[in-house]
Structure formats: C-alpha cells, structure tokens
Fold:
Amino acid sequence: MDIVYVNGPVQNGDFSFAERPGKAVGIRIAEALNRLLGLAPVPHLWNTATLAGDVRHRGAADHDTVGREQREARALAAKYAPGPVPGSGLLTDTGPAVVSLALEMVQGLLADGTLAVREMAVRLCVRCGHMTGRGTAERCRSCGNGVTRGAHRALLVFDRAEHRAVLERADFHGAGARTPVHLLNVAHNVPRRLVLSRTRDHGICLAPLGLEGMVLDPRAGLHIAVLAAAAERGAVQPVAGVLAVMTVTENAAANVAAYGAPFRRHGTTRLRYALHGRVPYDAAANARLYEVHRAGAVRELFTGWYLPLCAARERSGVSAARLPGLLKFLRRVYLARPATPRGEVLAELRHQAAVGDMSWVMDARALACALADRESGIGPTGSEGGAGS
Structure:
C-alpha cells in the first residue's frame, strides 16, 4: 500500500501564516515527510464550511456582489501573503472533487445501512431557521436571536452503537507511538446517535439526498477531503491502495474523529491520523536565540522544517525550554551533513517515515541524511517513494 501524508484541513479563519505560523505545522509535517518519501507535493487542505464563515459573509459590505466561494478563495490566498499560493495548489472541503466523493460515499453508506435518514426533534431559530440543537433551547449562533421553536426534521444520522467503535488504536499512524487513551475515551463518549447534517449557507449540499437546506457536517467533510486528495494522487499514479495519513493535533482529533468514523475508507484508500503537538513559535521568533547560538543560517530551516518534525515526534508539544538544545543540535548536524545521502541510511530513513517512526529527528546520522536528501533534489517519484505498511 502506498502512503501519502495530508494535512488535516485548516479552518479558514481570520489569520495569516505570517501572523500565526503554528497553523501551518500540519502542512509542514506533511510536506517534509512526503518529500522524504520522494512523493510529489500534495495540495494544502482547507476547511471552509464553517458557521463563522457564514456569519462573516453575510455581514460583509460586498455580500451582494462577491460570492461565498470567491470570498473564501481570497481569504485563502491572503493566508500565504506576501508569498504566492503553493504550486501544489489548495483543496477545500467544498471543492468539486470533494463534493462528488462525499455524495458517492453517503449514498453508498445509506444503501448498506451504515447511515440513515431519521426524523428527529430539533430546535429552529424563529428568525433565520438555523438548527440550534436537539431538544434544548439555545441562542442561535447564526443570527444571534434568542428565540427558538420545536420542530421535527429529517436528518442524516450515524448510529454508532450498531457498528464498530468510532475510534480504535489502529486508526492512528506511528510505529511504537503511544495512542493517548483519553482520545479513545472522548470518541467513545459522544452521543449514541450522531447527526451528520447541519443547517449552513456553505458546505456539501445534501439536497440531492432529499435533505433540503442542509449540508454534511464539516467534521465528516474534512475526512472526505483527505480521501479526495489521496484519490487524486492514486488517479495520477495508479497503486494497489493508498494510505492517507492525516496530520492533526490531539484536540482536533478529539473533536472530529467520531464524526469521521464512517468516512475513513473508500475503495482501496484508507485514512489514519498522525498526531502532532504544537510549536512555541513566539519563543522561536526571538532573534536573540539565533544570535547566542550563532545559528542565523539555519533559522528558516529550524522554524519551517525541523520544529514541525519535532512536533510530530513530541505529540504533547515542543517545550519552549527545549528550543536552545534543539537549535544547537540542528546547527551541529547541518554543518556536518554530507553532500549526498548514503543509500542504506536513506532507505532506512524512508522506511521510518513511511511507518510513522519519528525517532530519527533526534538521531544525528539520520537527520544529516534527511538534510542531504532535502538539498539534493534527487529521489524516487510516484509509488517507488511510498514504502508499504
């Protein structure tokens, strides 16, 4: 089975990567590991089907002249400013390929009984019709109105009690990595019946399935976006199967995993989670750190490449107190790196990258090989670079 790393879709909020580089950690991990495996770059994945996005769009002065897709595209391009959008492109959770795959998957899951359409009691905002919850009165998060009414509405549901556990250790990628037990507990404690349809202005429209005015829950849609990115690669380079490894923080996994349970496989494509921690970019931005350690030459390499890889190893997060030691280690290895990577070391390194063993980031010989490979521009492409699992 071929392996490709894909970032967990980043929510298209009000920020840029220049302002909040931590938002790009999952993207950078996926890029670094795919490059090490000799794979072509994959698109950056984005979550645009958000209630906050609906509210922003409706409140914009140019609401009547600028469409939602155009507004999202502008906001995404601004994330990369002052640089360009990456050459690998962007894929959103409402892109045509994602929508097509989503409808195909949902129809198949309805046919085999994994999903169902059930009429259920809900609360609707009396002003805008937004579904605020089930059975309890809540203030509308779409328009702010405080008055709701009871109603019955057909909803897309996943009855998790009738199927296997919504999250298992096998759903995580990483040789020798300890799966946080609390993630399994959080996923198992979600409601027995999960509602997968929401009232949104923007998203994967479920009208073709008879659910007018509803979209697929974005927590399910982002899994489908990952599968779509992997399927796109498989269409270009046919393989026996693709393992799409989604880089994600523990908090994000806890929020989305249960809703993605029916959407972690399609055909010969499988999805697993690769957990990563956070990077203390505020501390890493301190110029004094690089002056003291005479490491100005590796500053960009440290923040944009090495620290994200350390976060993939240290899943609870990289401590700010460790930055000087990590910087000194990278600088020492960088100065001693070979001109070209040694074949046997590179082969072992690629195997580790494929199985999710990130111990190599603190191994001087392996890290030197990765640096040499990164600079050489020489490596396999297509399926040869994706070691099996």
About this structure: Residues 218-236 form the longest helix (19 residues). The radius of gyration is 22 Å.
